[in-house]
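Hello,

Our lab assistant flagged a job as stuck in the queue for most of the afternoon. It eventually completed. Since we weren't sure the result was trustworthy after the delay, we are filing this so someone can double-check. Below is the sequence as submitted and the structure that was eventually returned. Let us know if re-running is recommended.
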Amino acid sequence: MDDIAQKMGISKKTIYAYFKTKSKLVEASVQLIFNEITTAISDLQEEELNPVIEIFQMKELANKMLKNEKTSPHFQLQKYYPRIYDKFRNKQFDVTQQFVINNLQRGITTGHYRSDIPISFISRLHFVGMLSIKDQNLFPEEEYTNLKLMEYFLEYHLRAIVNEKGLKTLNKILKNKEQNNA
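-- returned structure --
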């Protein structure tokens, strides 16, 4: 609280006038970020991009909004504020599920994804995978950067669900990334 007050140029007493506890401040902060991310996801979906491209755009959005955090805010919340973590994890699950389900359905309709994929299972697997790659016990940052983890995961995820048309789009995206990084 001292650091926050100092950066804002106000007293801790002023902060506590608006937020009775540190937990209330954390919850309000998480809610603000959650709302910003939810709005950005809605805006992205409204573009109705090629579903394969949309998944990569979502990755870019997440990296931009979370500023490619080295330590996952999820695990910090889970450790220090488990009640808030549980509340927002459920909200995050709902938003992520809806995004991924819409993406999968559109991918099947546009002919980029296999028509036989179990949508509910794949969307849940996607959510669990996205959370798990942030676990530094499983993926130590000395071995894996956040950006690389996300790229590996998305390629793995997409290769499991694309058909021939989707694979062409995926390979084109990967080739462009490779050329840009060279």
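-- support follow-up --
The delay was a queue issue, not a problem with the job. The result is valid. The domain at 21-181 is CATH 1.10.357.10 (Tetracycline Repressor; domain 2). The CA atoms of residues 1 and 75 lie 20 Å apart.
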